[in-house]
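Lecture notes, unit on protein representations.

Consider one protein chain, 479 amino acids long.
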Amino acid sequence: MNALPPARRSRVAIIGGGFSGAAVAWHLARAHWPESVSICVIEPRQAIGGGLAYSSEEPSHRVNVPAVRMSMAPDDAQHFARWLAASGEIERDTDALWKNGDVFPRRRVFGRYVAEQLTPYLNSGAVRHVKGQATRILRDPDGAGWTVHTSAGPVSADIVVLAATHPQPGIPDALASLTEAPGFVADPYAASALAGIGPDASVLIVGSGLTSADMVAELDRRGHRGRILALSRRGLRSRGHPDVRGEPFGDFASAPATTALGLLRTIRATLAAARDAGANWQSVFDQLRSQGTVLWAALAPRERARLVRHLRVFWDVHRFRIAPQVAEVLDRRQAAGTFDTIAARLVASNDEDDGLAVSFQRRGRTAIETMRFDAVFNTTGPAHGQALQSNPALRSLAGAGLIRADAYRLGIETSLDSRAIGRDDKPVATLLVAGPLARGTFGELMGLPEVARHAQSVAAEVAKMFETVPAAGGDAGHH
């Protein structure tokens, strides 16, 4: 009697092992036996799950939303909160517990939580971690599979999921002359980036969002007491959390606005209604977030572009709130006169003997001012519009016409089922995009709850293909 041939395994390669990639791998591994699926996560860091956002070792870098709103499992909101309560981390870091009872742990703690969820699957072999950088992704000549070239060797796959990290901030043209200067910090999250900043150093932070706030908190923790100036086009600082968290307020989804102006009017009317009802503005923005996909879908491409161009900066500072522990540092420094935020346009810069000279024009003024600083930090935010050029693996796919930038320069254009759209306007069946790089299609895809839900839906799409994609023999391994 002839023996049956060994069962074939579908090979999935996930590019990027930050939260998005880790969550896709976790959902897939939980739902399928390793005998049928081989999952390979390509991530140069030592652990899967931290990524750029949750691998910082700096104690002052905290998660920006309460722990009860963070979970790998969209259907189990308390998943992380339970892990955190059992971990002993709150006892080791009493500052994590805010006065209203919310917990804002250090970011690396959340990264450890994600890594621990994947540990059983890594140990069993259901998930494999290739500790390398993806450098090139090639579709097989017959179109049936993929080869991912990495710094640790090639990986073969039937299905590829792009879950790449945020691209580095672009350096503004006006700061180009400082790129080689000792006091210029191009990547503020790099290890020891702030180690050389003296306690009395005068610091310019270009950008006034979450990263800017992180830098002020880190400098303060390191004993810095000098002058810090944050500069951005609008001078808007990230807002904080309310003393008492409320339920989401308003309804934007029943009759969604079809224009950017219409949406703005609806938001303003809802904010007024919230004030009358004694609800805080944060509750309105929480509802906007939860209904963001519906709102984005209701807008025509031209209105989406208008929204990104005119309203995104206001959305960002209300939507991306800073932990109260960080807000407290900013408020204290501002009251002491050692921190300020201004609205200004960069004009020029120069590395001089007595410091880094930066010229800027304040909003609403004609005069150009020049100030000297001991250090200049670039925190202008991820250069999403450059993602396809700055990442070599994405660049190779773009060169082959298999992916393209979305119309709003937020990331990669995808179909509604998260397939990458190629140069021929058609979705590439076995190439999916998970996480923030897909937000041109889905709208709100930066916050953790939204990214977790998207990772779950991408994993479900991949699982559907196991029935239709002809799997190859062997593992998603080195050849």
